[in-house]
Design a protein that fits this description.
It is a single chain. By secondary structure, the protein is α+β, with helices and mostly antiparallel strands. It folds into 5 domains: 179 residues, Rossmann fold (3-Layer(aba) Sandwich); 85 residues, Translation factors (Elongation Factor Tu (Ef-tu), domain 3, Beta Barrel), CATH 2.40.30; 72 residues, Elongation Factor G (Translational Gtpase), domain 3 (Alpha-Beta Plaits); 108 residues, Alpha-Beta Plaits (2-Layer Sandwich), CATH 3.30.70.240; 112 residues, Elongation factor 4, C-terminal domain (Alpha-Beta Plaits), CATH 3.30.70. It is 25% helix and 35% strand. It has 14 helices and 34 strands. The longest helix is centred in the last third of the chain and has 18 residues. The protein binds guanosine-5'-triphosphate. The site of guanosine-5'-triphosphate (GTP) has 20 residues, from helix 1.
């Protein structure tokens, strides 16, 4: 199985915007090459996590090896390396692209170029990959292949005269795609004589065999039983099992330069075999690792607290388990005066955060209070020391600090031109700096802004979607830290400061935010037997205040007459609120209150 010459190997990935049909096309390739029998063919074979399937997004990338009998009479080994499609994971996207020589660019012929089409294709072009353009969904009545071809040419500068017109759903154009892969994607360089260097492009934790490492051999060869060194982590292991992915794991004895496969070596956690690391032979370590290893750094943090403090240990266990399989997740214990014991967790981005939260609740049955996400601030203290603050309540007092810097991102929004005004208004209101706007067709534009990440981790994406009726797509990229006039806004409930409600805001926005925040909290915190003051403060200065009136005997009394639907709504609201509450002093505060700061526009 491994005696294929490099000239008969093609390594490629598929890049596409979400929903443009990447998984459906991958299924078809597996089907047509008979890699997976019709009987075993589950829909969307490559997306095998439940959560992924439900959300219809690809999170973990995977690989599949296919044998293709081409029209030239030769059999080729095609390695498909699946790339995750979402913005949070662009680091993983670029790792998997490094493992390839070419990429299929899949664009929905009824939709056209979207933000992630552009972001992913730029990553591919940066790696000098050969691109095979594919216009998918040509079976749809709304498909406009000629218009979309022109769009791709204009936006990316890629010749589309030869683009494949395909329908992954109907199985149209699949043979043509396979032939194009053989013709256009270059074979890997035959570097089998060099010392082993292989790139890890994915890994996952298996309870029985330890971490399964997916890799591409760039130089040299690797055999079962070899002792390997992971160059970044400097750890060494003996390979217990080596194999290829077709797409189930099939053991082999040896893999050489250009091939893609997996190994197991009783590695305890994915942290020890991180994506992007270089595998070498312990007995023959090359001078340089493969380029480009960078640790994925958490950008967004939030607090996770069990509603029932008895669940703290269960939460720790659950996080430990998730961490085995997710090197990018970070967490450490956090003690909050208001919330008790919990964990401060770091994520690559918002989607990553949502997925982890959902898993904890779903797979581990934990009832959690989640605090509003925060970015990492860089604070220079008086005296020059620089510290990182990922928890607003820990921002040192003004007299102790010299300056505060916050992370900035570049956001590329693609939208029909009718929504340009709406997009710009949103970005302006989030402290954005306008950078550029470009029409790539008479009716579609890219709008580029630089924005503080903190303004985007709130409800930016939801707002963008609702203000453009779902027609805009976006992509973001971290560009560095900038100094700003930032202050900490504290919140007091019934006179007690609630550290988990503290937030960092721009000085110019502090009054507005404080005012709306206390109004929101007044709505969200259920009435109790006594009056509850809710206040927002900067330092010792109260800048806004509201009072939650004491409970009347019958909460439904205020619903006049027979307005049953309003009554129902109120009861539902109460039932929902009851589910997740945290007692802060004598006041029960519901989950929604901790997220109130994110929804100030509504
Ligand atoms: N009509 C039509 N629908 C298609 C075609 N290809 C895919 N679809 C549908 O488009 C939707 C999205 O397809 P997927 O293959 O899940 O898209 P994807 O790009 O893998 O999405 P992510 O995994 O989220 O990145 C599904 O409902 C598919 O059935 C096609 O050629 N024609």
């Amino acid at each position: 199985m491994t005696d294929v010459p490099a000239s008969r190997i093609r390594n490629f990935s598929i890049v596409a915007h979400i929903d443009h049909g990447k998984s459906t096309l991958a299924d078809q390739l597996l089907r047509v090459t008979q890699t997976v029998s019709e009987r075993d063919m589950k829909a969307q074979y490559l997306d095998n996590m439940d959560l992924e399937r439900e959300r219809g997004i690809t999170i973990k990338l995977q690989a599949a090896r296919m044998n293709y009998n081409a029209k030239d009479g030769n059999t080729y080994v095609l390695n498909l390396i699946d790339t995750p499609g979402h913005v949070d994971f662009s680091y993983e996207v670029s790792r998997s692209l490094v493992a390839c020589e070419g990429a299929l660019l899949v664009v929905d012929a009824s939709q056209g170029v979207e933000a992630q089409t552009l972001a992913n294709i730029y990553l591919a072009l940066e790696q000098d990959l050969e691109i095979v353009p594919v216009l998918n969904k040509i079976d749809l009545p709304g498909a406009e292949p000629d218009r979309v071809k022109a769009e791709v040419e204009e936006a990316i500068g890629l010749d589309c005269s030869d683009a494949v017109l395909a329908s992954a759903k109907m199985g149209i154009g699949i043979d043509e795609i396979l032939e194009k892969i053989v013709a256009i994607v270059p074979p890997p360089a035959d570097n089998t004589d060099r010392p082993l260097r292989a790139l890890i492009f994915d890994s996952y934790y298996d309870a029985y065999r330890g971490v399964i490492v997916y890799f591409r051999v760039v130089d040299g060869k690797v055999r079962k039983g070899d002792r390997v060194r992971l160059m970044a982590s400097k750890k060494e292991y003996d390979i217990d099992e080596l194999g290829v992915l077709s797409p189930t794991q099939v053991p082999v004895d040896e893999l050489h330069a250009g091939e893609v496969g997996y190994f197991a070596a009783s590695i305890k956690s994915v942290e020890d075999a991180r994506v992007g690391d270089t595998i070498a032979l312990a007995s023959n370590i090359p001078d340089e690792p493969l380029p480009g290893y960078a640790e994925a750094k958490p950008m967004v943090f939030c607090g996770l607290f069990p509603t029932d403090s008895e669940d703290f240990e269960n939460l720790r266990e659950a996080l430990d388990k998730l961490k085995l399989n997710d090197a990018a997740l970070s967490f450490e214990p956090e003690t909050s005066s208001a919330m008790g014991f919990g964990f401060r967790c770091g994520f690559l981005g918002l989607l990553h955060m949502e997925i982890v939260q959902e898993r904890l609740e779903r797979e581990y049955d934990l009832d959690l209070i989640i605090t509003a996400p925060s970015v990492v601030y860089r604070v220079t203290l008086v005296g020059g020391e620089v510290i990182e603050v990922d928890n607003p309540s820990q921002l040192p007092a003004p007299q102790k600090r010299e300056q505060v810097e916050e992370p900035y991102i570049r956001v590329d929004v693609i939208a029909p031109e009718t929504y340009v005004g709406a997009v710009m208004e949103l970005c302006q209101s989030r402290r954005g700096d306008f950078k550029d706007m470009r029409y790539f067709t008479p009716t579609r534009t890219t709008i580029i802004y630089e924005l503080p990440l903190a303004e985007v981790v709130t409800d930016f994406f939801d707002q963008l979607k609702s203000r453009t009726r779902g027609y805009a797509s976006m992509e973001y990229q971290f560009i560095g830290y900038r100094v700003n006039e930032l202050v900490r806004l504290d919140v007091m409930v019934n006179g007690d400061p609630v550290d988990s409600l503290a937030t960092i805001v721009h000085r110019d926005k502090a009054y507005g935010v404080g005012k709306i925040l206390v109004e929101k909290l007044k709505e969200l915190i259920p009435r109790q037997q006594f009056k509850i003051p809710v206040q927002a403060a900067i330092g010792s200065r109260i800048i806004a205040s509201q009072q939650i009136p004491a409970l009347r005997k019958d909460v439904l009394a205020k619903c006049y007459g027979g307005d049953i639907s309003r009554k129902k709504k109120l009861l539902q609201k109460q039932a929902k609120g009851k589910k997740r509450m945290k007692a802060i002093g004598t006041v029960d505060v519901p989950q929604e209150a901790f997220m109130a700061v994110l929804r100030l526009d509504q």
